[in-house]
Amino acid sequence: MLASHIRAGIGAGHLRAVNPVIAARSFLGMIVYHYLVEEVFGVPHAQVLATRELAEELVDIFIEGISANRIITKNGAGRKTARVRPGITLALRP
Q: Which ranges of 1-94 would DSSP assign to H, the alpha helix?
């Protein structure tokens, strides 16, 4: 399911031409690794983040990595945005 969304983004030119299955697994791997390290292996939290903050951070890292033609700017509200194509803007974490 995630791979099909990535594939669509590649087809539309919003994302770089990456293997969508590997990209989807990589994104899910970021999440699984985070919880394995902290919850299963008991490594102390490097930083305490709310679930939403963690999700936004991981999505930001992932999208920054696979976005095509990204231009990082701050919008009028001071939020970072990534313009991946003319007319297409993704809001990133504050």
A: 2-11, 20-35, 51-66
Domain limits, the chain:
2-67
Kindly list the strands in the beta sheet with 71-74, ordered across the sheet, starting from the edge strand earlier in the chain: 71-74, 80-85, 88-91
Report field, pTM of the whole predicted structure over 0.70: no
Angle at 49 between CA 14 and CA 51, to 5 degrees: 60
How confident is the model over 39-57, as pLDDT tens digits? 888 877 767 778 888 888 8
Amino acid at 31: I
3-34-43 Cα angle (round to 5): 165
Three-state DSSP string of 24-39: HHHHHHHHHHHHHHHH
